[in-house]
Specification:
Elements (H helix, E strand, L loop, with lengths): L23 E3 L5 E5 L9 E2 L6 E2 L4 E4 L8 E2 L4 E10 L5 E9 L20 H10 L12 H4 L10 E5 L9 H8 L1 H15 L3 E7 L3 H13 L3 E5 L8 H9 L14 E5 H13 L5 E7 L7 E6 L4 H7 L9 E4 L6 E3 L12 E5 L17 H5 L6 H9 L3 H6 L10 H5 L6 H20 L2
Parallel strand pairs: 1-14, 9-10, 9-12, 10-11, 13-17
Antiparallel strand pairs: 2-8, 3-5, 4-7, 5-6, 7-8, 13-14, 15-16, 15-17
Bound molecules: iron/sulfur cluster (SF4) (2 copies).
Length: about 450
């Protein structure tokens, strides 16, 4: 078992993982799905269907718009009732397809099982992952085939599988490891084959002892290591996890490949196994539905395009109107403002909060207490940056490493004057990117 290195900073908020003991349930078929055509980081997809077309479950309905992109597949069989737009989890209007189910759930057979995957060429396996539209399932939604294509100058000798699930309240990855460990491990083997990588470490926080024990028993036989990790948010962030399990430090502005590592989430590994072994594209995922107002919290296998309102019906609705609904966890999730927002490939959780859990604070000036610096896992100075950003000194913010911010929220969690530090950092990053682009286009 590797010795855990302690990454700088971080916090330990209340875990509130009340659904950890609840088995994954499969949602029944809905009459209508609204499937956004942009569910990943990268180029938008190009729609392939039009109104009145009939489609099968798993059929490609929007093709990738470039290499850094991921196709979208129909969540069930039926008829395209509209090529439209919808409000995505980030609040923006995005192109979408409305699909009326025919109730048969007839599968598409374009992708066939790769029974002999152990002898398949890595490029063929990578193509399958791209064809299945797989993206990072931990929340980032970066196309997986791109992450598995490091340049030749950056050989990978360490694959880290992320079973940390450090966000409070979420338990989808925990349940997946308990209920389908073989699928996670087969997907891990496939990813390791693609990368030509012998060393595999699976990081799991020690608030999931049952998952650690089960995964350890099975992983040992495959010569993989399981690293039990002391609970610390944001340990699931790539750079922090690599350091925790291997002691390798990704340099400022660098990527995991700079230290010979690739990180993949357990959900992504399972999706890779399904794509290769079953020929199944990514059109559903496990999502935790939880929070004080939820009548029956649980972990659900939801199809992409399931409207939020339908997902909440599965959880038997709410005791009272929530003050806030978040897609994802409480630290990095996005607040949504409509019950029509659909589940997408990266929706790890739906969290409902009451008003006493979402108190609104008036932010004050920085008092220089330094608490944000103490907890920042990226070793930057959020308080100083925040003042620079308020003064629109984005040149200074860039020089003070604003781009290193991973938007984990630790600084804002600790700030005694409730400064909107993450909001400031996000704004600075957007400004800096825009300025860099403008410079390039001069
Ligand atoms: S500055 Fe960014 S990386 Fe540092 S604690 Fe705040 S949100 Fe996290
Ligand atoms: S925690 Fe808040 S008040 Fe303290 S230094 Fe950071 S920004 Fe300033």
């Amino acid at each position: 078992m590797p010795k855990q290195a302690k990454f700088h900073g971080g916090i330990h908020p209340p875990e509130a993982k009340v659904t950890g003991a609840f088995e994954i349930q499969t949602a029944p078929l809905l009459e209508t799905y609204v499937v956004p055509l942009q569910q990943h980081i990268g180029a938008p997809c190009n729609v392939l269907v039009k109104k009145k077309d009939t489609v099968r479950r798993g059929q490609l309905i929007a093709e990738p718009g470039g290499f850094v992109s991921a196709g979208i597949h129909a969540p069930t069989s039926g008829t395209i009732s509209a090529v439209t737009t919808c409000t995505g989890p980030a609040g923006a209007s995005v192109p979408a397809v409305e699909l009326t189910s025919d109730g048969d759930d007839t599968p598409d057979d374009t992708l066939t099982p790769m029974d002999d995957w152990q002898n398949s060429a890595p490029d063929d396996l990578k193509k399958r992952i791209a064809d299945a539209g797989i993206v990072g399932m931990g929340g980032a939604a970066f196309p997986t085939h791109v992450k598995l294509s490091p340049p030749p100058a950056k050989p990978i000798d360490l694959l880290v599988i992320n079973g940390v699930e450090c966000e409070p309240c979420l338990t989808a990855d925990h349940r997946l490891m308990l209920e389908d460990p073989d699928k996670v491990l087969t997907g891990t083997q496939i990813i390791a084959r693609i990368l030509g990588c012998k060393k595999v470490i699976i990081g799991i926080e020690n608030n999931k002892p049952d998952a650690i024990e089960l995964m350890q028993t099975k992983a040992e036989k495959l010569e993989m290591e399981v690293a039990p990790l002391k609970v610390r948010y944001p340990q699931g962030a790539e750079k922090q996890l690599i350091y925790a399990v291997s002691g390798r430090r990704v340099p400022t502005g660098g990527l995991p490949m700079d230290v010979g590592a690739v990180v993949q989430n357990v959900g992504t590994a399972a999706a890779v196994a399904e794509a290769v072994l079953d020929g199944k594209p990514l059109y559903e995922r496990i999502t935790t539905i939880t929070g004080t107002p939820v009548v029956k919290p649980g972990n659900w296998r939801l199809r992409v395009g399931t409207p939020l309102e339908a997902a909440l019906t599965l959880a038997k609705g709410v005791h009272n109107d929530p003050a806030k609904i978040i897609f994802g966890g409480p630290m990095m999730g996005l607040a949504v403002y409509s019950l029509d927002v659909p589940i997408i490939k990266s929706t790890s959780g739906i969290l409902l909060l009451n008003s006493d859990e979402t108190s609104e604070f008036t932010s004050g000036p920085c008092i220089g207490c330094g608490q944000c610096v103490d907890v920042c896992p990226m070793n930057i100075m959020p308080g100083t940056l925040s003042v620079q950003i308020e003064n629109e000194r984005f040149d200074l913010a860039e020089a003070w490493h604003a781009m290193d911010c991973i938007e984990c929220g630790c600084c804002a969690y600790m700030c005694p004057t409730y400064r909107p530090l993450v909001h400031h950092l996000k704004r600075a990053k957007a400004e800096i990117v825009a300025r860099r682009k403008a410079e390039q286009n001069k």
